Amino acid sequence: MRTLRLAILGSLLTLPATALAESHESAPEPYVAPVQGWMVAEKPTGVQTVRQVLPSTGVLAAAGQTIIYMNHVGTTLSPGDNDARTNRSTLVSQTTAVPAWSTTQAKWDQIMSCVRNMWAPFNVVVTDVDPGNVPHYESIVTTQPGVIGMDPNVGGVSPFTIGCNVIPNSIVFTFADAFGGDAETICEVVGQETAHSFGADHELLASDPMTYLQYNGLQSFKDQSVSCGEYQSRQCGLQGECGTNQNSYQFLMQRIGPAGTDTIPTVAITSPADGATVAPGFAVSASASDDGAVARVELWIDGALAETLSSAPFTFTTSPSLSAGAHQVETRAYDSGEQVGTAQITVQLSTSGGGGDGTGGNPDDPGAGGNPDDPSPSELVSGCSAGGGSGSSLGLLGLALVGLLARRRRA
Questions:
Q1: For position 319, which CATH number holds?
Q2: Considering its fold, how many domains does the chain have in total?
Q3: Is there a single domain that holds both residue 229 and residue 308?
């Protein structure tokens, strides 16, 4: 019996070690991206762009409307098969915090407008609002390539497949510091890197964003068949497997499709009126409509985003700390395709007690200035102050002297 007890006790003591060993054996292996190489090309400026070579996906067309999320606010990426919905990328080998690119709102608006115009012919929505867990492509604009462990000369990077396939939910990078923060150049690099994820190769056409040739002007996808290559003609694709020539416009049209006929939303500021005088913390009401659905309405004060509402009623409350003086009030209405309609007014903010209805106060209220046709309290007391003090004492003294003289005359 004692021998049996010892055997049982010994087996119990070995259970934690056995469980630990099993747990260790079943621990997931670190993710290793199926990278088959890197293609590096250098621009005349010395800045490089890089393609990460991946095996074929077999995908030759994007599904449904394509969303391109322009991200300059930073994110955290984990290694894994490319999926912008879950922040996974083959371009990082470990969990990586990608910093924001700090720039002015005006410059970012310029970049967004440029990118939207570049993709306008296609069935594409370009947005800088994270779409979340819906299919989309992500173009990250950040500071330097070192943040994801790349050479300091790199200005942009995208995955690219053997076979020039579409990489669903791909994530690409543009490193703004490499271009001195120039809005037009950043826009063009965003265009090239994003198009790589749809399978477009480099081509020998200077006016097209897929080029390495110098061009004095804003590039756009051209409906023109030209040779692929960086500085010399070559077959398209990593192994010459994608044809002799490329027409970037028609290539993307086949992969993405043409733009729809969606109309721009309409928006109007219903209150306050243009030119009104308002009080601190005044409310702004807007109405918005679209042939489809209004996705959101934004309030902008003096060129800065103040508040966003995703459903009616579109009534905003402004900051009570706004300074006195003139302010520009703007509302922007977006549809599901990120088309935008705008409305603007100018108001005068008064901090001296004026009402928020633009009247500057109640004229019947003495505290607000009163009615100039009504006598003032001081006028009702023979020009003397109605309050206490020396004026009141002198008035009483005068009345006493008048009474004394009258009594002397009667005597």
A1: 2.60.40.10
A2: 2
A3: no
When the pLDDT of each residue in the chain is averaged and rounded to a whole number, the result is 82
| Residue in 207, 210, 281 with CA at minimum distance from that of residue 242 | 210
| Predicted confidence (pLDDT) at residue 19 exceeds the cutoff of 80 | no
Residue 367 reports pLDDT greater than 90:
no
As a whole number of angstroms, the distance between CA 234 and CA 214 comes to 19
Q: Which two tokens stand for residue 185?
A: 């150049």
Q: What are phi and psi of 42, to 5 degrees?
A: -115, 130
- pLDDT, tens digit (0-9, with 9 covering 90-100), for 173-219: 999 999 999 999 999 999 999 999 999 999 999 999 999 999 999 99
Per-residue pLDDT band at 353 (split at 50, 70, 90):
low
Q: 93 and 194, same structural domain?
A: yes
Q: In angstroms, rounded to a whole number, what is the distance separating the alpha carbons of residues 26 and 92?
A: 24
**Shared-domain flag, residues 73 and 206:** yes
Both 120 and 86 in a single domain? yes
Question: What residue numbers bound the domain in which 305 lies?
Answer: 266-349
